[in-house]
Amino acid sequence: MALFNFTRRTAIRLRVGPARVNPLMTSRRPFSSFLVTPKELSESLSHNSPSKISTSPRIIPLCASWFLPNDPAGRTGIDVFRKQRIPGARFFDLDAIKDNESPYPHMLPRADVFAKGMTDLGIGQLDEIIVYDSAELGIFSAPRVAWTLKVFGHESVHILNNFRLWVEQGLPTESGDLTPPPPASSDYPVPARDAAKVVSFEQVKEVAKDHGKEGSEGVQILDARSNGRWAGTEPEPRPGLSSGHIPGSISVPVPDLLDPETKALLPGGELRKVFQKKGVDLNRPIISSCGTGVTAAIIDVALAEAGLGHGHNRRLYDGSWTEWAQRATEADGLIKKTT
Fold first, then answer.
1. Is the pLDDT of residue 234 over 80?
2. pLDDT digits (tens, 9 = 90+) for 87-98
């Protein structure tokens, strides 16, 4: 048997109690919810000026801007960070803090690599992190970085909803080259990785093979790519990669979860209606997937905001379609296309 069975035994394994919480992360926090508005962040930053005598956790904006490799304008995350950012923000490079030994992009880094990345950014274990995206994309890669922090036990993390609104509301920004960030009081400790938030190719393969079989508990796979890529009628952004979808997966394109003008995540009630309209069973375990594991995290955040599924009933397929399309084939029935 696989590590765990996503059919009869999945419900049992996915409904165990939540992962242990680091007691260092349970102190009072300045934000009441996971999503933070520009006004809330601005006000909190104004009352959180660095001080040698302050014992309050620092509030650190963390830019997670990232663009697809086929971006028409050739934009990169570091370029837009230099162009315009929240004052004092740090830049989390998704193309650097990752598993550099994996053939697939953006796979979770080893715990020691993550800890070094956080240390290099001057981030401490008790710091309150507000992850945000570029103004151009609104909400895109910030949920992935926030999810990564949570996988490695940094519970004091939030997402700004969003930087486009921050800019439109005339809140302060700065620009220019990077300067070394002020260090934390100590190096970031090497954390444990919460395996309950992640699924592997083998585990998703088991779900796909059991799809439609009598007696299956029916774990759901939600795909954040465009409907055309999911259906197999549009090409993937990475040359040579087949489009299509995992058997039984449901197409939930990211734009369906965002406000069309501001690109902010929709309110919880509207998100719930989106998922219900797409036939998502709110009582069954869910795996989120996408192209490389980045925008799958948007689905995970949207589910949480809609009040759907307990955290331990939601997992993310780290390798997502880039891994799936290189290890599965149409011939073995593991890549489906809609004609």
1. yes
2. 999 999 999 999
Q: CA-CA distance, 66 to 225, in Å (whole number)?
A: 16
- Do 307 and 34 form a contact (C-beta atoms < 8 A)? no
Residues acting as catalytic residues: 290
Backbone dihedral angles phi then psi of residue 130, each to the nearest 5 degrees: -115, 105
And the tokens for 244?
């299509």
Instruction: Average the pLDDT over 106-112 and give the result.
Output: 96
Residue with tokens 């690109």: 263
Question: When comparing pLDDT for 15 and 157, which is higher?
Answer: 157
Q: What is the pLDDT of residues 125-165, one digit of tens each?
A: 999 999 999 999 999 999 999 999 999 999 899 999 999 99
What are the residue ranges of helices labelled H in 53-95? 77-83
Instruction: Assess whether the previous peptide bond of 162 is cis (omega < 30° from 0).
Output: yes
In angstroms, what CA-CA distances link 306 with 193, 272, 273, 298? Answer: 26, 5, 9, 12
Those residues whose C-beta lies under 8 Å from the C-beta of residue 338, and which sit 6 or more positions away, are 230, 231, 232, 233, 245
State how far the alpha carbon of 118 is from the alpha carbons of 36, 90, 187, 245, 294, in Å.
22, 10, 8, 35, 19
Distance CA 250, CA 106 (A): 23
| Beta carbons of 302 and 330 less than 8 angstroms apart | no
Integer angstrom CA distances of residue 67 from 78, 83, 143, 225, 282: 10, 15, 14, 14, 31
Please work out, in degrees rounded to the nearest 5, the angle formed at the alpha carbon of residue 68 by the alpha carbons of 143 and 127: 30
The stretches of the chain forming alpha helices (DSSP H) are 10-14, 38-46, 77-83, 111-120, 142-151, 163-168, 201-210, 227-231, 268-277, 296-305, 320-327
Is the pTM value of this prediction over 0.85?
yes
Half-sphere exposure (CA, 13 Å, Cβ side) for 302? Answer: 33
Kindly compute the dihedral angle of the four CA atoms of residues 129, 135, 139, 140, in this order, to the nearest 10 degrees: -100
